[in-house]
C-alpha cells in the first residue's frame, strides 16, 4: 500500500562529512600540539593545562554533536493519499492549550490561538479544544466565553475562503489579506468588526480586572467565582462552553462546532501544583470523560496554528501502515514571529529546527519540546511498545451526556488530591519534578520502545512569541540548561537509563542538551584566560608566521 509519508536524506550530507573529517583532524592536531608543548612550571603551565582541558572538553562535545549532524533526514507527507484512503473517517483529536496568567499572557492573544486551533481543516465534530487556566481567572473564562460566540462566525469564514493563517489577530493585522471583491469585502468587514469588538471587550475587562455584573447572567459558569478564591487557592472548575455533540450547537453556516472546554484545576497552597506538567495531566483526565480522543495535541497559549493542515499531516505519520504503529508522537518545530532584527539572542533556534532535530529523527526521533506536539493518548498514559498492539483509532466519547453531570465528574478528576498514591506524574502522563518536564517525558517514551517523528513543513505549523529582552532570554535558557543538566545527572541520564533501550547516537543527541550547562565553564575559561594571558604576556597559542613579499616576519604576542 502506498505510504502516507516519505523519508529522504537531507542534501549536502557528503559535503558535511568531508567538512567534519577536516574538523576532526584539526581537533587532533590542536590536542597534539597542546600535549607536546606544555611550558615549564612557572611559565604559564597551569593556564596551558587548563586550555588543554577545555580543548579536550570541546573535542568531546563536538563528537557528541556529530550524532545530530551526521545524517539528518526530512519527512514529507501525502495528505491527498490520507484523504483518498480515509475520507472523513479520521480519529478524534483533543487539543490542549495551557495558559497561566492573564497579565503576562493577554487573554485576547490566547483567544486568537484558541480560534486558530478551532479552525483547523478537520471535521469539527472530531475536534475538541481544551483551555487550561492555571491562573484560575474569571477574566480568562470571560474571554473564552466571548470566543465561543465569535467562533460561530470565524470558523465558517475561514472555511469558505480557505484563509491562512487562522488566527484572527494575525490574519486581520495583515492588510494584504483585505479582499478586492466587494461581496467578499463586505463579509470580511463584518467578521473583522465582530473580532475587533470582541477583542476590545476582552481587553477592557482585563484592564478593569473584573467582569461586569450584567455579563455574568449570560453563562452559568461565571457563578464558579462567586465563592471568592484566588489564583493559588480555589476549587476545580470545568465548564463545557460548546458541546460538539449537541445538535443545536451550530455555527452561522449551519455546521457543527468543535467542543470547547474551560478548565482550571484545583489549587491549594499546601499542595504542589507541578506547573505545566500538572496542568497537562489534569487535562488528560478531564478530557477522558468528555471526549477521550486517541490523539492529543498540545500548544502553549502564545503559539497559534499557522497551517490549518497540521492535524492531517500528523495523521499521515500515525496512520501509515508500515511505520505508524511505532510512532508515539509527532513534534513540530517552535517558530517565532517576533525575532529582533539581527536575532541577537539567538532565539530563532535555526540550528535546532533545521539541523539537530532532523538529525535526531534518524536515530529514533526528536525530543518532546512541550508545544506543537501530537501524542497518542495511550502512550502518553504509560503504554510500552509492543508490535502486536493495535491502536483503536475509533475510540472516543461520541454520545451526548448531560453536561452538568459530565462537568461534575470532570471536576473530581481535577482536584489536588486526585493524584495521591497514583502513578500520575511518574508512569502516567507528563513527569513531575523537572524544569523541562517535556524532555524527560519524551525520553521515557523513547525508552519504552517508541519512536517519534519530526515534521517541519515549508509552511510553519505553529508560530509563537519568543523572549524579547535579555533577562527573559537568560531566564528561559537557565531553565532549559538547568533542566536538561539535571536529567543528565539523575537516574534518567540518557547514557545509563537509555542504555540498551535507545541507540547510542540517540543517547548522545539527548546528552547534547544535557551538557549545555557544563559547556559554559570551558567556554568561560576559553574567553577569559587567553585574554588575561595576553595582558600578562603568557603565550597560550602558537606563534603566527606571516610571509610578506621577501622577508619572513616572526610575530609574537609579547
Ligand atoms: O504553572 C504553569 C506554568 C506554565 N504554564 C504554561 O506553560 C507554557 C510554557 O510556559 P512558558 O513560561 O511560556 O515557558 P517557555 O520557556 O516559553 O516554554 C518552553 O519550555 C517549556 C519547558 O521545556 C515547555 O514546557 C514549553 O512548551 C516551551 O515552549 C505556557 O503556555 C504557560 O501558560 C502552565 O500552564 N502552568
Ligand atoms: Mn513561552
From TrEMBL:
Keywords: Cell wall biogenesis/degradation, Glycosyltransferase, Membrane, Transferase, Transmembrane, Transmembrane helix
Active site per UniProt: 134, 438
Residues given in the record as Mn(2+) binding sites: 276, 300
Alphabetized SUPFAM superfamilies for the sequence: Nucleotide-diphospho-sugar transferases
Keyword tRNA-binding: no
One GO process term, biological-process aspect: cellulose biosynthetic process
Localization: Endomembrane system
Membrane-protein topology: Multi-pass membrane protein
Gene Ontology terms for molecular function: cellulose synthase (UDP-forming) activity
Name this protein carries in UniProt: Cellulose synthase-like protein E6
Binding site for UDP-alpha-D-glucose: 105, 134
Species of provenance: Panicum virgatum
One cellular component term from this protein's GO annotations in UniProt: endomembrane system
Transmembrane segments annotated in the record for this chain: 14-34, 46-64
UniProt-listed Pfam families: Cellulose_synt
Stored PANTHER family: X-BOX TRANSCRIPTION FACTOR-RELATED
InterPro entries: Cellulose_synth (IPR005150), Nucleotide-diphossugar_trans (IPR029044)
Amino acid at each position: 500500500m502506498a505510504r502516507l509519508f516519505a523519508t529522504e536524506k537531507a542534501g549536502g550530507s557528503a559535503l558535511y562529512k568531508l567538512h567534519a573529517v577536516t574538523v576532526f583532524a584539526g581537533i587532533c592536531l590542536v590536542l597534539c600540539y597542546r600535549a607536546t608543548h606544555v611550558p615549564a612550571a612557572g611559565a604559564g603551565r597551569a593556564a596551558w593545562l587548563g586550555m588543554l582541558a577545555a580543548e579536550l572538553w570541546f573535542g568531546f562535545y563536538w563528537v557528541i554533536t556529530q550524532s545530530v549532524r551526521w545524517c539528518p533526514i526530512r519527512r514529507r507527507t501525502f495528505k491527498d493519499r490520507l484523504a483518498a484512503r480515509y475520507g472523513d473517517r479520521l480519529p478524534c483529536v483533543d487539543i490542549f492549550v495551557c495558559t497561566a496568567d492573564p497579565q503576562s499572557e493577554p487573554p485576547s492573544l490566547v483567544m486568537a490561538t484558541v480560534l486558530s486551533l478551532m479552525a483547523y481543516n478537520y471535521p469539527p465534530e472530531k475536534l475538541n479544544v481544551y483551555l487550561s487556566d492555571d491562573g484560575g481567572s474569571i477574566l480568562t473564562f470571560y474571554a473564552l466565553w466571548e470566543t465561543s460566540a465569535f467562533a460561530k462566525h470565524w470558523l465558517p469564514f475561514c472555511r469558505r475562503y480557505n484563509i491562512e493563517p487562522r488566527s484572527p489577530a494575525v490574519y486581520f493585522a495583515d492588510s494584504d489579506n483585505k479582499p478586492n471583491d466587494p461581496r467578499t469585502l463586505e463579509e470580511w468587514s463584518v467578521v473583522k468588526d465582530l473580532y475587533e469588538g470582541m477583542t476590545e471587550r476582552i481587553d477592557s475587562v482585563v484592564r478593569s480586572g473584573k467582569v461586569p455584573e450584567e455579563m455574568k447572567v449570560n453563562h452559568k459558569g461565571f457563578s464558579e467565582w462567586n465563592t471568592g478564591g484566588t489564583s493559588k487557592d480555589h476549587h476545580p472548575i470545568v465548564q463545557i462552553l460548546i458541546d460538539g455533540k449537541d445538535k443545536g450547537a451550530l455555527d452561522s453556516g449551519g455546521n457543527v462546532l468543535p467542543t470547547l472546554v474551560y478548565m482550571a484545576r484545583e489549587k491549594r497552597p499546601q499542595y504542589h501544583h507541578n506547573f505545566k506538567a500538572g496542568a497537562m495531566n489534569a487535562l488528560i483526565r478531564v478530557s477522558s470523560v468528555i471526549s477521550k480522543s486517541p490523539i492529543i495535541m498540545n500548544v502553549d497559549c502564545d503559539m497559534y496554528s499557522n497551517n490549518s493542515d497540521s492535524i492531517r499531516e500528523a495523521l499521515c505519520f500515525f496512520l501509515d501502515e508500515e511505520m505508524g504503529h511505532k510512532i508515539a508522537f509527532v513534534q513540530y518545530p517552535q517558530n517565532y514571529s517576533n525575532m529582533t532584527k539581527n536575532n541577537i539572542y539567538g532565539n530563532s533556534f535555526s540550528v535546532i529546527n533545521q539541523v539537530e532535530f532532523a538529525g535526531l529523527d534518524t536515530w529514533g526521533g526528536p525530543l518532546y519540546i512541550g508545544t506543537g506536539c501530537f501524542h497518542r493518548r495511550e502512550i502518553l498514559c504509560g503504554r510500552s511498545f509492543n508490535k502486536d498492539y493495535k491502536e483503536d483509532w475509533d475510540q472516543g466519547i461520541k454520545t451526548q451526556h448531560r453536561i452538568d453531570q459530565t462537568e461534575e465528574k470532570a471536576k473530581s478528576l481535577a482536584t489536588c488530591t486526585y493524584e495521591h498514591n497514583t502513578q500520575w506524574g511518574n508512569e502516567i502522563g507528563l513527569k513531575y519534578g523537572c524544569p523541562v518536564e517535556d524532555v524527560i517525558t519524551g525520553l521515557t517514551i523513547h525508552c519504552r520502545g517508541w519512536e517519534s517523528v519530526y515534521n517541519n513543513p515549508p509552511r510553519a505549523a505553529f508560530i509563537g512569541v519568543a523572549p524579547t529582552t535579555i533577562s527573559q532570554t537568560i531566564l528561559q535558557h537557565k531553565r532549559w540548561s538547568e533542566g536538561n543538566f539535571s536529567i543528565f545527572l539523575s537516574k534518567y541520564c540518557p547514557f545509563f537509563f537509555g542504555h540498551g533501550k535507545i541507540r547510542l547516537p540517540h543517547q548522545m543527541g539527548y546528552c547534547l542538551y544535557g551538557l549545555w550547562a557544563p559547556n559554559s565553564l570551558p567556554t568561560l575559561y576559553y574567553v577569559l584566560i587567553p585574554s588575561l594571558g595576553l595582558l600578562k604576556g603568557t603565550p597560550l597559542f602558537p606563534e603566527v608566521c606571516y610571509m610578506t613579499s621577501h622577508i619572513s616576519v616572526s610575530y609574537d604576542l609579547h
